[in-house]
């Protein structure tokens, strides 16, 4: 199963830690959204989208990329994010868009990521030391599960 992970991780590299774990399990090619050549997406069976959450949304480069993508039938996708509060609900912001492009969502993952943005900086940030070992273990399990369901 040829797998690509498209990501953005601009705050503390929190999401990149998750990208690397999932990428290793899936033996995926890993690329930042801004460097994706849209013409190459057809080569992959499974495409992951991972991002930190900024003002409730995936990074704008990921949103722009999805908007530009052609209809890609019979491809599977998975979605993951890190955020100060760590909720999966942030993934919903791109689920619908991906569906409109003919993509089937086969998995969602989220965890907390250290957030020192704005006023949180004064108190040393929230979600300190996240993602932690347990988060990365969860990410690994998530990826191993994907291997089973996305065959
Ligand atoms: C500009 C900015 C906006 C953010 N907005 C949110 C938000 O709306 N909700 C949230 O839970 N975390 C928010 N965060 C925290 C990040 O989602 C969190 O630190 C994430 O792990 C960053 O991932 P990264 O290090 O891969 O960029 C924000 C951080 C920044 C820098």
Account of the 3D structure:
This is Flavodoxin family protein. Helix 1 packs parallel to helix 4. The protein is of the alpha/beta class and 151 residues long. The longest helix is centred in the C-terminal third of the chain and has 17 residues. The protein has a single domain, classed as Flavodoxin domain (Rossmann fold), CATH 3.40.50. Strands 2-1-3-4-5 form a five-stranded parallel sheet, with helices on both faces. It contains four helices and five strands, in the order E-H-E-E-H-E-H-E-H. The model has no long low-confidence stretch (mean pLDDT 95). The site of flavin mononucleotide has 21 residues, from helix 1 and strand 4.
Kindly report the oligomeric state of this protein.
Answer: single chain
| CATH topology term | Rossmann fold
Number of contiguous helices: 4
Top-tier CATH class = Alpha Beta
Instruction: Name the strands of the widest sheet in spatial order.
Output: 2-1-3-4-5
Q: Count the strands?
A: 5
The computed structural class is alpha/beta
Characteristics:
alpha/beta; binds flavin mononucleotide; 5-stranded parallel sheet; 5 strands; Rossmann fold; single chain; 32% helix; 151 residues
Describe the structure concisely for a colleague.
This protein has 151 residues and is of the alpha/beta class.
Question: What secondary-structure arrangement, pairings included, does this model have?
Answer:
Layout: E1 3-8, H1 14-26, E2 29-32, E3 46-52, H2 60-68, E4 75-83, H3 92-100, E5 103-112, H4 133-149
Parallel strand pairs: 1-2, 1-3, 3-4, 4-5
Helix pairs in contact: 1-4
Bound molecules: flavin mononucleotide (FMN).
InterPro entries: Flavodoxin/NO_synth (IPR008254), Flavodoxin_dom (IPR026816), Flavoprotein-like_sf (IPR029039), Protoporphyrinogen_IX_DH (IPR052200)
Pfam family, one: Flavodoxin_5
Domain Flavodoxin-like: 4-147
């Amino acid at each position: 199963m040829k797998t690509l992970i498209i990501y953005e991780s601009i705050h503390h590299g929190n999401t990149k830690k998750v990208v690397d774990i999932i990428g290793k399990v899936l033996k995926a090619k890993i690329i930042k959204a801004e460097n994706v050549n849209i013409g190459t997406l057809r080569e992959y069976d499974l495409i992951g989208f991972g991002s930190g959450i900024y003002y409730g949304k995936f990074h704008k480069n990921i949103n722009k990329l999805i908007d530009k993508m052609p209809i890609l039938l019979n491809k599977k996708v998975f979605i993951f994010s890190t955020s100060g509060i760590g909720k999966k609900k942030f993934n919903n912001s791109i689920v619908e868009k991906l569906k409109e492009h003919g993509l089937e969502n086969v998995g969602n993952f989220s965890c907390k990521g250290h957030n020192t943005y704005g006023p949180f900086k004064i108190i040393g940030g929230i979600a300190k030391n996240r993602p932690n070992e347990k988060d990365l273990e969860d990410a690994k399990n998530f990826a191993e599960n994907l291997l089973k369901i996305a065959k």
